[in-house]
Amino acid sequence: MASLSSSPVYPLDPAGSVGGPVAARQHPRVLSIAGSDPSGGAGIQADLKSIAAHGGYGMAAITALTAQNTLGVSAVHVPPVEFLRQQLDAISSDIEIDAVKIGMLGDASVIHEVRSWLEDVRPAVVVLDPVMVATSGDRLLRGNAEAALRSLLPLADLVTPNLPELAMLLGEPDAPDWATALDQGKRLAAECGTTVLVKGGHLAGAECPDALVNTSGLLRQDVIEVAGPRVDTRNSHGTGCSLSSALATVQARRGDWEASLREVKPWLLQALSAADGLDVGRGSGPIQHFHHLEPTRNPAGRSGDFAARLWAEATPELDAIYGLAFIQGLQSGRLPEPEFNYYLAQDAIYLNGYSRVLARAGALAPTEEEQLFWAKASQTCLEVESELHRNWLSTRPAPTQTGPVTKSYVDHLLATSASGSYAVLLAAILPCYWLYAEVGRQLHAAYVDAGAPGDHPYADWLKTYADEEFAAATRKAIDLTDAAALKASAQEREAMVEAFAHSCRYETAFFDAPRLFA
Fold first, then answer.
1. In this predicted structure, what is the pLDDT of residue 23?
2. 217: region left, alpha or beta (phi > 0 left; psi from -120 to 50 alpha)
3. What is the average per-residue pLDDT within 394-416?
4. What is the pLDDT of residues 367-387, one digit of tens each?
5. Which residues contact 272 (CB under 8 A, 6 or more apart)?
6. Are strands 195-199 and 210-213 parallel, antiparallel or unpaired?
7. Residue 95 phi, psi dihedral angles, 5° rounding
8. Which pLDDT belongs to residue 13?
9. Distance CA 247, CA 161 (A)
10. Which of 12, 25, 360, 367 has the smallest count of CB within 10 Å of its CB?
11. What Å distances lie between residue 487 and 93, 325, 355, 370, CA to CA?
12. Torsion region of 98: left, alpha or beta (phi above 0 gives left; psi -120 to 50 gives alpha)
């Protein structure tokens, strides 16, 4: 990426949306044009659940009938296209439609009819999920319809293919990694002149990023990436349908694609985390669209729920961090050296205090594995992380006194460590892992995309925080915090959220401090 993949300082501005601002509605009227899944997990059924879960009023025009369940699709019947047009006309002649989600279309005649209707009605928001292959691998689009489907892309405001569908739309092999997927997304966006949502769900690894891609200047950056953890479940039937219909609904309310994605992604993570509890079918079961309404659910949630909640707390601070002059200068290499010197000097002071807090986490940890993890982390702070600081600062002038932000941050952590709650302490510790890893990864990616210039003065720092060992430690810290939340009381979990949010705010202030005090 040539630019950082989160937006500048929030609050978000609807002017960044594709297709212009949309009149916000508390209960958007959303039409799904898609196939029917009698097992209820995908298609029209999933769309209507997603729309309702996000406060919309759902409507449906059925393009195809399928015989399917959680094990796969056994038959597809496409009703006469004239009847589809009658459904569409009946709805649009009576009801004002705020957003349209388009899913399975089946064949070329259906696609042409939907295109004709779109050109006549001109809905304010159109999300196209180019359903070509089911999660089970079953093909859901006839071969002669692929060209027709490509011709429909320019009429959409957002296109949401999975990686196999993205490759099929370009006539290329599936992307083997995230960088290739983003490149494919950029090329498809350029070809069809719209925004493409590139989804990382089909890739391996602990992370599951999504990215809004548009190369025509309709977004704040060509690529706006939203990170997130992968949820370990086989029950992901209808994930793409649910995501696209949720985005259509929220976009009709918010009018900003980035804001919509940042609202929908945590909901989807929790829907996947709660999917196993539905116990539907013997194959890939559906997600739990209404996880937030379960009255009998364990108040602590399921594995991954609390991490998703914390990530939702962190994203506004990441937005703010990416908008800071310090971060922009660090990315470009034009950051004044005195500001970097101040930052490194304060970071060295901070790490000394942070190491004591990590050691305290080890003392409070309930298992030997966790004790060893935090003890190693404490040692790493003093030995490895500070080496770059010593090498750089030994030949350059830098303040030796503790800055006000550094003192406040360390005092917050020490006070939290003295409370005696292992879970709350982990939540306070986590932003220094999670936000640092995310910012470092994005900065390093921008550095690489710029050709890794040899004259970049801060290249060594950028390389340090792209280190896979640090990324693995971050994932472990997230997992331990999430696990601690499952065992915590409701009151303690709220204290965890507050401690985490407090540390996130200090992370932003820490990156901005050089501008104020250097």
1. 40
2. left
3. 85
4. 999 999 999 999 988 776 566
5. 231, 233, 235, 236, 239, 287, 304
6. antiparallel
7. -120, 130
8. 27
9. 13
10. 367
11. 54, 40, 25, 15
12. alpha
> Is-contact 176 160, C-beta < 8 A?
no
Segment among 88-102, 216-230, 261-275 with least mean pLDDT: 216-230
Q: 166: which strand partners?
A: none
Residues with Cβ within 8 Å of 153's Cβ and at least 6 positions away in sequence, in order, are: 128, 130, 159, 169, 188, 191, 192, 194
Residue 356 has pLDDT above 60, yes or no: yes
Q: How confident is the model at residue 345 (pLDDT cuts 50, 70, 90)?
A: confident
Continuous H helices in 274-401: 305-322, 325-332, 337-364, 368-380, 386-393
CB 25 within 8 A of CB 252: yes
Please check whether residue 33 is in contact with residue 155, taking contact to mean a CB–CB distance below 8 angstroms. no
First to last CA, the chain: 29
Q: What is the pLDDT of residue 448?
A: 78
Torsion sign, CA atoms 92, 98, 103, 107: positive
Tokens of 39: 């097992």
Do 210 and 265 contact (CB within 8 A), yes or no?
A: yes
Give whole-number Cα distances, 291 to 93, 273, 274, 276, 479, in Å: 35, 9, 6, 11, 21
Q: Give the residue, 437 or 57, on which the prediction is more confident.
A: 57
Instruction: Name the E strands within 140-190.
Output: 158-159
Over the Cα atoms of the chain, what is R_g? 24
DSSP states of 253-270: HH--HHHHHHHHHHHHHH
Give Cα separations from 89 to 94, 120, 499 (angstroms).
9, 10, 53
CB 128 within 8 Å of CB 166: no
Least reliable range by pLDDT among 84-98, 128-142, 143-157, 453-467: 128-142
- Write 381-388 long-range contacts (CB < 8 A, 24+): 381/351, 381/352, 381/354, 381/355, 382/351, 382/352, 382/355, 385/351, 386/348, 386/351, 386/352, 388/344, 388/460, 388/461, 388/464
Is the pLDDT assigned to residue 392 strictly greater than 70?
no
Q: Give the residue carrying structure tokens 């709660």.
A: 274
Q: Distance from CA of residue 363 to its chain's centroid?
A: 34
Under the banding of pLDDT at 50, 70 and 90, the label for residue 186 is very high
Backbone angles phi, psi at 236, to 5 degrees: -130, 20
Displacement of CA 358 from its chain's centroid (Å): 28
Tokens found for residue 37: 């899944």
**Tokens coding 493:** 């979990």
Instruction: For residues 343 and 351, give the distance between their C-alpha atoms in angstroms, rounded to a whole number.
Output: 12
